[in-house]
Amino acid sequence: MDYIKVVTAYPTGGTLLPNTFVDHYMIRANGEYIKVYIYLLRMVSEGANFSIPCLADVLELTEGDVARALKYWEKESLLKIVRDHGIIQSIELLPVPGQARPVKNQEPSSEESAAALHSVPASGHEAIPAMKTLSPSELQQKSEDDRFSYLLYVCEMFIGKPLTCTDMNILLYLYEDLSMSCELIEYLVEHCVSNGKKSFRYMQSVAVNWYEENITTVEEAKAHSKNFKKEYYAIMRAFGLNQNPAPIQEQYMKQWLEKDHFDLSLVIEACNRTINAINKPSFPYTDTILKQWKDNQIMTVEQAKHFYQRQKSPKTFANSNTVQPVHNFKQRDYDFDALEEQLLKKQFSDEIREN
Question: Residue ranges of the DnaB/C C-terminal domain (predicted)?
Fold first, then answer.
């Protein structure tokens, strides 16, 4: 996973929003974009690095949402993005000018979003629609639609409390922009609540994943859930996690199982080695192990074990009859498994520090 360093040449004074940002930029910007910008301020105030998947996970957005937000603020000249062959290397927050320049097209195209973020999952759609934020009066007008009004009622029953304007905006986004049927949205809410997830931000992430997978019916959603649950939950159990996977964790597992075509047993072996190495579950660390195995064309548990056994084997020479000089010192014994763990830890730390 690539980590991106955020820098700025001007002092932020903590996580403070400049007044000019509030007066001229925040009012007309998409709410998801504002969340990303504020969190970037938070990161830069600590001089911390971050990754797109981690940022999406923290803010309960999709990686595509984050990519579009970065592109939007870049067009607004509030940040500068340095890329290398389309991959983001660093982001610099720029001083907020007194007046915002007009923007002809606030939403970047799908091609621009793909160039802005190399790790956005492939989708059958050209672009994921951006969510609009409507005022309470506008939401009231929308609720006059009988089907949408019924959807609001059903969701309140599942959640057990009245919906906020943010909740209603998300539901409207699923209903109008993602073109999800009321039946599919109802199943989505029921599915998330039954798994202990009552956050509408979480539901939005799941809905976008379904949108990317071209899931348009309840039957397709049930089949999708059934297909991934068995293997995904086996990986979660290997990590000692008795919970439903978050969207970012699903993306890792989808990469391993569907794109890299690793056998489930090999992924679980990598999970076990992760726990043994750092004493805690870590999807990025396991990803580092699997990348190393992929580079060495290791596709089975037996090959992985043989790979480590070869590292433990002593070196042999072509001419076994050659008399070797006798050295008057004790031969050292190396724990190659421990050395391998140290190497992976160092590689994992270097990626975080350097990127």
Answer: 155-224, 244-305
- Reported as type and span, the H/E element at residue 7 is strand 4-8
pLDDT for the residue 103: 43
Residue 116's SS3 state is: helix
With tokens 């009012």, the residue in question is 27
pLDDT of residue 238: 92
Model pTM? 0.41
d(CA 224, CA 87): 31
Which of 212, 166, 162, 215 is CA-nearest to residue 191?
A: 215
Look at residue 127 in the predicted model and tell me its pLDDT: 63
Tokens 């830069």 belong to: 44
Q: Using DSSP, state whether 193 is helix, strand or coil.
A: helix
* Closest C-alpha among 123, 128, 121 to residue 53: 121
List the chain residues with pLDDT less than 50: 99-126, 315-327, 329-331, 334
Helices (H), the chain: 19-21, 31-46, 52-59, 63-75, 110-116, 136-142, 146-159, 165-172, 182-194, 200-212, 218-238, 247-254, 264-278, 283-295, 301-312, 336-354
Residue identified by tokens 């504002």 is 34
Rounded CA separation 96/186 (Å): 42
State the pLDDT at residue 189: 93
The residues, ordered by sequence, that sit 6+ positions from 126 with a Cβ below 8 Å of its Cβ are 110
